[in-house]
Amino acid sequence: MLFDLFFKTRKPVEEDLPQASDGCGSGNCGCKKTPEPTTAEPDGYDMKLGKTMNRRAAFRQMTAGLLAGAGMVQASCSATSTGDKREEGQLKWEEYFKKNYRLMTDEEKSKTVERLERLYEINTGKTINVSTNGAVENVLYGYAFNISKCQGYMDCVNACVKENNQDRSSQMQYIRIHEMENGQLNFDDADDNYFHEVPAEGHFYLGTQCYHCENPPCVKVCPVGATWKEDDGIVVIDYDWCIGCRYCMAACPYDGRRFNWQTPEVPEEEVNHTQHYLGNRLRSKGVMEKCTFCIQRSRNGKNPACVEACPTGARIFGNILDPNSEIRWVLENKKVFRLKEDLGTEPKFWYYMD
Amino acid sequence: MQVFVQFIKDGFQSATKGNFTYHVWMATLTVLMLLGTFAYYIQLRDGLVVTGMSDKVSWGLYISNFTFLVGVAAAAVMLVLPTYVLKDINLKQAVLIGEGLAVAALIMCLAFVTVDLGGPARAWHLIPKLGYFNWPNSMLAWDVIVLNGYLFINITIPLYILFHHYQGKEPNKNVYLPGVLISVFWAVGIHMVTAFLYAGLPARPFWNSSLLGPRFLASAFSAGPALIILILSFIRRYTDYKIPNTTLRKLALVTTVAAQINLIMLISELFKEFYSPTHHSQSAVYLFFGLHGKTGLVPWIWSAISLNVIATGILTFHTLRNQFRWLALACGLLFVAIWIEKGMGLIVPGFIPGSWGDIVEYTPSLVEIMVTIGIWAMGAFIFTLLVKVAIPIELGRVRFGKRE
Amino acid sequence: MKQLAVLGILAVLIVLGVKCAPGQHDEGGHNGSHHLLEQLKYISVDSLNYEFSRFDQVDKEKLVQIHQLVEGAEQFLIPDRMAEMKSYPCSNCHSKSLEALQAGKAPGEKKSHWDIEIVHAKTVTMQCTTCHDPKNFNLLHSLTGAPIEFNHSYELCGQCHSTQQKDWLGGAHGKQVGGWAPPRVSQTCTGCHNPHKPAFEKRLPARLNTEWLK
Fold first, then answer.
1. Nearest residue, CB atoms, C210 vs list A173, A320, A325
2. In this complex, which of C4, C16, C24 lies closest to B192 when CB atoms are compared?
3. Measuring CA to CA, how many Å separate C190 from each of A119, A327, B100, B343, C87?
4. Are strands A129-131 and A274-276 parallel, antiparallel or unpaired?
5. Angle at which helices B173-199 and B212-238 pack, to 10 degrees?
6. Is the pLDDT of residue B113 over 90?
7. Which chains touch A (3 or more CB pairs under 8 A)?
């Protein structure tokens, strides 16, 4: 009874018991898994802790628990052949001991990219392309959001999720659109969960996401230096270096960061195969992630997916060091403001009105 | 060397021998630890999704307990100063117990941080040189240093003293006294650093207060000695270890003063939040009265405050404090009150309302509770072992080459 | 001994204070006491040599340059609308002038473009021929009758919507096309607004925000 009470409140997890221990944990998580719609099936907890489990099974689970506690048991995902399995184990092993991305030489970077691409190939038979493009010289990215123009359509959110391979099962989203009443800029009374025809009468819409602060509080607090600001101003995360302490999440005043509370799931056919090491490559459970201004796009001159998807032109992106850029014109000619400026974080994300 | 091996052997013997109650106690703790391990296994397998935490309230029961236990660890050693440095003999018996408590509390702290990690397997990234240690920028990096350093100090000093007593020798003051001194400053350090961990975040106005550090110390110096009083009362009741009344009275005095200071600081905080409430007072409003119909933490904080006030009241009156029944009651209440205050009263409300004013409440899940109980059981287990080994040596029953 | 203890505590606190007090202001090199925007005035960029341009994303041939409307204004690129229009030139169908068309209409015969509903200002202010040239259907015309090509409809819109035009010329209005790198390409007015019904329409959002879709 008590068990039910606690578990019923949790988000559903689609993993079921028999598969559970072949944990698709580390590195690369494209591992198969077309999640069956879990209708009346009891979820993992019910099966583990509910009355359905016999004593022997319970003991086995318990032993496995002890093993997992003693050392990390990382079995590999279902592979096609034993050779692949061995190779996969080898690759995962090397991945586990790799360095912080910032300390890697170019050679080490290409090595890890090769491993990641190979791992994905072993697991899915498909190929991905992981870029390690560095910052473009003399570029500092900035973003402007026109609160008069945004109509709350949320096309940006869909584009973002698709582009950045965000976890579908927990419906992770980097962008939030706040529906606010005219006459005040008040987040307390804003509606973040609206679902009615937009734009609603007497309301305006304001989007928030990671602001890529020039003085990012999240970077300062990370104990392992797994997050940092690149030379082009993009605040990035090394997903394989993050230990998941979530200190950055507590330090971010803008709700810009997201945590993988469970193994992220993206159906293979929906995976964006054009990836960046610091951008939209697939994450594992227990690590942080967030908006990267679509680093895999922006470093090739493209606009972030949200800018491209916006049907109203409310989103402007560009190089604020370029005196002729659109973003620079906005900053110099419109009445711009940023949120929580008093914190001294210097976001590179401005709001303006017509 | 041979002496040391014998020391370990005798220690092991002391630890494994005991009466029926002792074995039942240890067996219960073991069962709880196993249950905790099982719950942690589930968490490792499925991810932190099995906890009550979310993107909005991203720290919960684990970090709450961590914060509280840092205080217990810090306070335990503050008893060392009067004993060794000021030559106040009354507290001498309390010191070894205190240091044992510090060790147990610290191991629990480290365990709580570890179970809170999303990727415990990658924890080696924290090791300087081998990983990437963001020091001195990250207060968490500071915390890693101070906690491990403190653990080291608190293992070595008692070990040195016990080892000498075990051989029937007096430990050399010139060897352990500097260590003792360092450990005292270090104790203040671990709790201040832990407070800075939160106080340094302008993103969370509820924590971003200069009073947080001092308040941590005050609450720690009431909760820590309160626990030691309870333990000492227990030990002197059930073992032959003589603990004079004056020791308990002195500890009670420390507890009382700290609890009073803690209350004054609480009043000061309440005044600041509620006399002219700003937008930054929202967390306090939520905590004490609820916000937009969400009142999850209100019962917690009011029970904590009532317990705190009652306990401080009992302690303040000499007639009550000097009766050991009342003292024990007050200490128990105080301990619980401060545990709530550090967790449901500090860590959780720091996240509510969220950055954009959204109120997402937090309730620990069963897995989380089981892991927490498991770690507490582990702490109790370690502490019992340490005391079980130390007391016979201190009583002179276990000596090198002889055993009664 | 007591003094020593007090001194020691002070020392620890001072060390802690010195180590933690200053925030990280040296990362990235763009920080300082001034606001970012203030600093931008003093940052001079020697060269902007990108290995990419918006022509990577959009076909150069399908773009046209805008007319210089203001002295010194940048002449950026916009999509070539005329090339995209399905039945252009209009004179393919509308070979006669408007008067001739109206005169020769049989009773009950439907008007051309009867399905177009105009929701753009009041009829006292605007009607079809306010924008469309009744004599040459291939062209638009200004209020004073000067011809305007369909590609350059912004000249027409800007007659009333001058503030929007100013923002558009600068870069605050109008969706960016093909990325952020130079040369600048923006949507033209009619790329986003239906000239006959320019306001954005109400519709359901593409998804729920932070709530799960059931």
1. A173
2. C16
3. 47, 22, 77, 58, 16
4. parallel
5. 130
6. yes
7. B, C
CB within 8 Å: B189 and C19? no
How far CA C180 is from CA of A133, A247, A299, in Å, comes to 17, 33, 10
Best of A9, A24, A188 to substitute, by most chain B Cβ atoms within 10 angstroms, is: A188
Same domain, A144 and A218: yes
CA closest to B178 among chain C residues? C5
A179, A31: one domain: no
Last residue of a domain, one of A23, A38, A70: A70
Residues A331 and A350: beta-carbon distance below 8 Å = yes
Residue A38: pLDDT band by 50, 70, 90 thresholds? very low
Residues of C in contact with A233 (CB under 8 A): 28, 30
Chain centre to alpha carbon of residue B72: 3
Total domains in chain B come to 1
ipTM of the complex: 0.93
pLDDT in tens, B182-205: 888 899 999 999 999 999 999 999
> Would you state the structure tokens that stand for residue B80, as one six-digit string?
């060392």
Please tell me the total count of domains within chain A: 3
Work out the minimum CA distance from C54 to partner chain A, whole angstroms.
7
User: Tokens standing for A127?
Assistant: 């190929």
User: CB distance from A3 to chain B under 8 Å?
Assistant: yes
Q: What is the pLDDT of residues B297-330, one digit of tens each?
A: 999 999 999 999 999 999 999 999 989 999 999 9
pLDDT score of C45: 79
Shared domain for A93 and A228, answered yes or no, is no
Q: Does C172 touch chain A (CB under 8 A)?
A: yes
Question: Does the distance separating the beta carbons of B185 and C19 come in below 8 Å?
Answer: no
In this complex, is the C-beta atom of C13 within 8 Å of any C-beta atom belonging to chain B? Answer: yes
Residues A183-229: tens digit of each pLDDT: 999 999 999 889 999 999 999 999 999 999 999 999 999 999 999 99
Q: Are residues A163 and A114 in the same domain?
A: no
For residue A219, which residues of chain C lie inside 8 Å, CB to CB?
24, 27
